[in-house]
Every structure is written in C-alpha cells, then in structure tokens.
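Note to self: keep these together.
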Amino acid sequence: MNHSIYSADRTTHLKIVVVALVAGIAVAGFGISARSTDDGYTQTARVMKAGKAVTMTSSDTAVVR
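Structure:
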C-alpha cells in the first residue's frame, strides 16, 4: 500500500478517481432528491399598477392631473 500520492501506482489513482466520482454522484443525487417543488414558499410575480399622477405644489397641497 502506498501512503503517498506521488509514489502511488496506476490502480491507486484509479481507486481515488472512482471514489471521488461515486461521492460526487451521491451528493448530486441527494441534492436533487432533497429539493421539494410544493413547499408553499414559491415566489409569484406581483404586478403593481401605477395610479394617477400627482404634482406637489409649494403650498404642499396635492394636485391630481
């Protein structure tokens, strides 16, 4: 058994790559399965409509045009 990555042979490198791929697939699979689409926290677009234009005068009374 090689304890250094620099002196490791080809099968040791292959084992490391396989373990990393399996771990990556497991993490991705867990992330996809943990996502819920019907959790009640979905965001919806809310439309705000503009009202009538208002101009402020020097006497601080609102004039609606």
